[in-house]
Amino acid sequence: MQTSKRFSVAGCLQVTAIAGALTAMAMPVQAEQWRGWNIQPPGYPNTVALEGFAKEVAEKTEGRVEPKVYNSGVLGNQPDAIEQTRSGALDFANFNMGPMGPIVPATNVLSLPFIFNSVEDMYKVMDGEIGDRFADALAEKNLIALSWFGSGARSLYNTARPVETPEDVQGLKVRVMNNDLYVEMIDNLGGNATPMAYSDVYQALKTGVIDGAENNYPSYESSGHYEIAQYYSLTEHLILPECLCIAKSSWEDLSEEDQQIVRQAAENAAKKQRQLWAEGSKASREKIVSAGVEVNEVTDKAAFQEKMQPIYAEFVKQNPQLESLVTDIQAAQQ
Ligand code: BDP
């Protein structure tokens, strides 16, 4: 009696287990479909790196997470996309730290003109403990920064003349990204700054609403701005890091194992992006030069740097809690 009862309980358990396994086979765990924002077009270094990230995550999580990258800013402009990622409406993105400033004040430190001496120094700083401080500030606003991309150095370009001294900026209408610091930057050089979405710049240049803008070689080239604004002057006033950021809610939905996979894929993507950036930047430069763009060196950068001093002074006055971040970045580059 007893034996048969035990037998039947075990049998029951076995049947239940088999039924469970069959159900699991028939209904696999729902895959997380991740939507990723990318402002750049197909083939751009960042795009290739992001697509590699998506592929690696899908493969290594065996389909538990399926990221898809939406290129060319089709999911909206950058300030909107930042808000959407913060709220979890988008799952991941590659953001520039310029338009991040109004949302995550600490990142404004990175937008102080000439804060970095070189792209190499920027990488060194962001890959170390200082980079972690920025990641912490982003996390407070629901953005998990998993790795840092580069975006070269931004320089001024316009339709009117080569910029060799600050006086050459006088009276030029210059598009800037959405950040008050950039308005001050152009104003201090005697120009008129116009904050505008990236996607509107081409038309604004064409119709003469603006005379110029500022960007790195790959963006200047891939956006087609070089076709209209044919003076590119190597002011190299901003060396901005970019993040590969995940929405906090999407991140927290992951198991620890999958977080590990996603983090590793983001680090691999940054490595790839930096390498592709160096190559792509060179290719873009060659392309614009052969299209007739006049590229000029700016020999007296100190004259531009001097005009930025009041911005630093005002910044630390308004944000005393960020002063140590400014001085630590400067000290790290000595
Ligand atoms: C590019 C950045 C992109 C910015 C764009 C701009 O990679 O994130 O949106 O500049 O100027 O270099 O708006």
Automatic annotation (TrEMBL):
Coiled coil: none annotated. InterPro entries: DctP_fam (IPR018389), TRAP_DctP (IPR004682), TRAP_DctP_sf (IPR038404). It comes from the Bacteria. Residues 1-26 form the signal peptide. CDD domains: PBP2_TRAP_SBP_like_3. Keywords: Signal. This is TRAP transporter substrate-binding protein.
